[in-house]
Amino acid sequence: MDSVTLDALDLRLLHALQLDGRAPFSRIADVLGVSDRTVARRFGKLRAAGIARVAGVTDSRRLGHAEWLVRLHLPPSRSTALARALAHRPDTAWVAVLSSGTEVVCIFRVPDEGPAPLASLGRLPHITHIDAHRLLRPVMDRRWIGRTLALTDEQIAALTPDATEDARPVELTDLDRRLLPALAADGRAAYPDLARQVGWSESAVRRRLHELRRSGVLHLDVEIDSGLFGFSVQCMLRLTVVPGRLGSVARALADDAEAAFVATTTGPHNLVAIVVCRDAAALDTYLTERFGLLDGVDRLESALITSYVKRAAPEL
Fold first, then answer.
1. Cα distance between residue 172 and residue 253, in whole Å
2. Reported pTM
3. How far is CA 222 from CA 208, 304, 312, in A?
4. What pLDDT sits at residue 46?
């Protein structure tokens, strides 16, 4: 990974897939002005190297699922094994190692607004402390901007799907329960392959996938390390903001170029964020200068993200 360099075409292809993860290579190629074969070959190379992966991600709010941010403290020698075990669980949506291995942080998705599954975690050896707080509302409606700077406005318009989200409640079908895990593993899987995996007809799979995307239940994301874009430092921030300023501070952070995730939460810290910076010096500048201008921030804690073990897609 450290020796990989993305060229201009790679960056444009990845930006295109962020706009529409299932866009046909022929359509992407037409917009980028290259051949279908070139686009397919480039993406195949990136995926085979483990650099980029398209994953189908469900919207917890549309499904009535609670999201719990769980933080576990343990000896660094045990953190990697625990993070990998958590990553294999179907109810985790995100797993990361923080603070050089002294913390493992994950997001659990729990059906029917249920509690975090802490009983089993508490029985694990070597864990010295656990806390869990409910993620209340994501504030950002975009991805980290560093991944989406390669295309022109005209190219973005040509590749962006029409916004057709249907706000009506969604109840998952038996087909959905088979289809969504397959799309989580490979958001670009071909319809015949999906049909074979789930045991339904290709036409039914095609129709239901379209409905899930249109309803906003299913989104497609490109998983890729920000270090390949020249940004080597990622940091989790926990903020305590006075209630009257919580909304304005959350919106201000969500507008920052450094922001990758911002959400309100329960607990002693009422706002959590993930920020991406070019290096440690840039992070220092962001923390000292940016937060000095934000009125209402009473307390700020930061922890460097050492590694991601699961971003959205399951372990293969």
1. 34
2. 0.89
3. 21, 22, 10
4. 93
